[in-house]
Amino acid sequence: MKNLYILGAGGFGHVIKDMAVQSGKYTKICFLDDNSSKAVGKLIDLPNFIDSNSCFFVGLGNNSVRLELINKLLCLNCEVISLIHPSAYVSPTAKLGIGCCVLPMAVVNTDSVIKDGCIINCGAIVDHNCIVNEGVHVCMNAVIKANNEIASLSKVEACCVVERG
Fold first, then answer.
1. Spatial contact of 138 and 119, defined as CB atoms under 8 Å apart
2. In the beta sheet, which residues pair with residue 89?
3. Domain coordinates of the chain in residue numbers?
4. Matching CATH topology for 2-75 and 83-162?
5. CATH code at 2-75
6. Regarding beta strands 161-162 and 143-144, do their DSSP bridges make them parallel or antiparallel, or are they unpaired?
7. What is the three-class DSSP state of 34?
8. What is the tally of helices (H) and strands (E) in the chain?
9. Angle, CA 15 vertex, CA 42 and CA 27 arms, to 5°
10. Which 3 state secondary structure label does DSSP give 60?
11. pLDDT digits (tens, 9 = 90+) for 14-34
12. What 8-state DSSP symbol labels residue 21?
């Protein structure tokens, strides 16, 4: 078991912490954040937390900042994890990138590709043969119908339906 450091102690960071606690996979779970008294350090302190017993997740809702920080972590040779809630379904034929999360009741269906730094939020559905490019946020209960490609850094708003193809 490793220590998990979540970059960002805001609302989304706390959602990630809740999922991580429920998983039971981490020795300790801490925040790094420049503006929170709940954090064990600031983002500038990041190098002090890098070791073989640590892994990281960027818990920020801003798509471009999230992707930028994931890339920074990778450049520092950090282990960046993805999280899948146990109530979510991710097809065994789907591919999930680095630093992604699939939240409760979400679906990532057959042969879909979710690239690095994506959020598949509560109840969202990514149907078969879709490509969700880097840094996308598919909001709660949004549906991406089959054979779609979503542009990098996009936000598919809550309850929106992206029609097939």
1. yes
2. 107
3. 2-75, 83-162
4. no
5. 3.40.50.20
6. parallel
7. coil
8. 2, 17
9. 65
10. coil
11. 999 999 999 999 999 999 999
12. H
DSSP E strand stretches across 100-162: 101-102, 107-108, 113-114, 119-120, 125-126, 131-132, 137-138, 143-144, 149-150, 155-156, 161-162
Q: Which residues touch 87 (CB under 8 Å, ≥6 apart)? A: 104, 105
Token output for 26: 């981490």
Q: Which residue has the tokens 């993805």?
A: 82
Q: How many residues does the chain have?
A: 165
Which CATH code of 2.40.10.10, 2.40.30.10, 1.50.10.10, 2.160.10.10 fits the domain covering 83-162?
2.160.10.10
107: its two tokens? 């679906």
What one-letter code names the amino acid at 14? H
15 CB neighbour count, 10 Å cutoff: 21
Class of residue 141 by CB neighbours under 10 A (exposed 0-12, middle 13-18, buried 19+)? middle
24-82 per-position pLDDT tens digit: 999 999 999 999 999 999 999 999 999 999 999 999 999 999 999 999 999 999 999 99
Nearest-angstrom CA–CA distance, 73 and 58: 9
Which helix (H) or strand (E) is 57 found in, with range? strand 54-58
pTM > 0.85: yes
